[in-house]
Amino acid sequence: MSEKNVRLGIIGLGAQGGTYAGLVDEGRVPGMSLGAIADTDPAKRELAAQKFPDAPFYDDHLAMLDSGDVDAIVTTVPHFLHPEMTIDAIGKGVHALTEKPAGVYTSQVEAMNTFAAEHPETTFAIMFNQRTNPVYTDLKALIDSGELGALRHTSWIITTWWRPQGYYDQSEWRATWGGEGGGVLVNQAPHQLDLWQWLCGTPKKVFAKLAFGFQREIATEDEVNALVDFGDGVTGHFMTSTNDIIGTDRLEMLFDKGKVVVDGSKKVTIHRLTQDERALSDSMSMQDVAKLFRGEADQSSVFTVEEKDYESVWGKQHLDVLTNFAAHINDGTDLIADGAEGINGVRLASGMQLSAWTGREIDLVDFPAEEYLAELNARIQEEGKFPTRS
C-alpha cells in the first residue's frame, strides 16, 4: 500500500461536502487526508471550526487552491459551478473530483473536458459512486462478457425520488432554471442516466414528454417519460418523477440470449436462453410452443433462471470513489469514472428537456448545444432571479 497522502480540499461545506470531509477526517479514505475547506457562506466558518478544527478555512476557493494546503479538491457546489471550479483547480495543477452532474449544459461540460484533456498530468474524475455498487458492477461484467448477446431493448422506471413541497421550499435555488438548471433529471436521476448508458451504451436520439411543475409548485420538470434510440433498432424507455410516494425502481434489459431485471437496485433476475431467441423461434413448432406455455414442457430446455439478492451499505459507494481517486493520484490505479464521461448524462438530460420544449426528436450525436442554451436562458430570464448563462 502506498504511504503517499493526498490532501483533499472541500469546496462547499453543505450536506455532501460535510459527509466527504467527515469520511476523510476520520481516516476512512486510505492515502487521503483533509487539507482545507472553502465556502462563501460565513456561517460555515464556525461550523468548520467546530467539526474540523485542524483544517484551514477559506471563504474563496481560489485562495484555497493557491494556498498550498491541498493537492486535490471535490466540488460539492451548485451544478452550474462544477465545470468552472474544476477548470480552476486543474489550471493550478490541483486534481479534481467533480460531483454529479458534470454540469447543466453541454457546452460548459465540453469546455471542462477539453481543458482537462490538455492537462493529462492532473487527475480528473467524477463522483459516479453507483458504478461501485456490486449490483451494477456484476451486471456490467455479465453484459461485457457477451454471454447474453446483443441488446434489443431496455426500460428503467425510477420513481423512488418522492419529494414533498417542503423540500423545494427550503432554498430559493431549488428546482429553478437559473439556480439548479432543471429538476429531477439534474438533481435526483443523474446516477441512473449514467448507469443506463454505462450498461447499455450511449443513445443516438431521444424523444421525451416532460411535465414542468406538474404536481409541485416549481418551474422545472417533476415527471419524465422518454424514448431513446440506440441505433440498429435498439430502443429504450426512461421514466422518472418526484411525485410518486410509493415509488418504483425497475430496470429491464432484453438481449438476444436472455433477459435481466433489476428490482429496487437490490434483486437481480437473470434469464439465460439455451439458444439465441431467433434460433429458438425458428426451431420450435407450434405444438412445442403450446406445451411450453401450458407448462407441459421442460422449461430448462428453453431458459434457466438465476436470482441474486444484494445488500446496500450506506455511504460505502462514496467512500469507494474517494479511495479510488486517492489511489489513482498516488499509484496510478485506474479510475472508476473518468471525469470526461460525465457529459453523456448531461447531454441525455438536456436532450430530454429540449425535446419536451420543442416537441421533436433530438439528435444526441450532433447535439444542438446552442439551441439548448438559448431555450434554457429564455426560461432563466422568465424567472427573473438568476443571471443567464453563456
Describe this structure in words.
There is one protein chain. This protein has helices at residues 15-25, 42-51, 61-67, 82-91, 106-117, 134-145, 165-169, 190-200, 277-283, 286-293, 316-331, 342-358, 369-383, and strands spanning 6-11, 32-38, 57-58, 72-75, 95-98, 124-126, 151-158, 205-212, 221-231, 234-241, 249-255, 258-263, 267-273, 303-309, 362-363. It has 13 helices and 15 strands. The strands form two sheets. It has a nine-stranded mixed β-sheet. It has a six-stranded parallel β-sheet with strand order 3-2-1-4-5-6, sandwiched between helices. Strand 1 (6-11), helix 1 (15-25) and strand 2 form a beta-alpha-beta unit. It folds into two domains: 6-129 and 315-338, 3-Layer(aba) Sandwich (Rossmann fold); 131-311 and 345-383, Dihydrodipicolinate Reductase, domain 2, CATH 3.30.360. The model has no long low-confidence stretch (mean pLDDT 96). By secondary structure, the chain is of the alpha/beta class. The longest helix has 17 residues, at 342-358. Residues 7-121 form the Gfo/Idh/MocA-like oxidoreductase N-terminal domain. Residues 137-260 form the GFO/IDH/MocA-like oxidoreductase domain. One of its GO terms (molecular function) is nucleotide binding. Keywords: NAD.
Helix content: 25-40%
| Radius of gyration, whole Å | 23 Å
Arithmetic mean pLDDT: 96
Main β sheet profile? 9 strands, mixed
Number of strands: 15
Strand content: 15-25%
Q: Numbering strands along the chain, what is their spatial order in the largest sheet? A: 14-13-12-11-7-10-9-8-15
In the residues, how many domains can be counted? 2
Shape: globular
CATH topology group of the largest domain: Dihydrodipicolinate Reductase, domain 2
How would you spell out the order of helices and strands?
A: EHEHEHEHEHEHEHHEEEEEEHHEHHEH
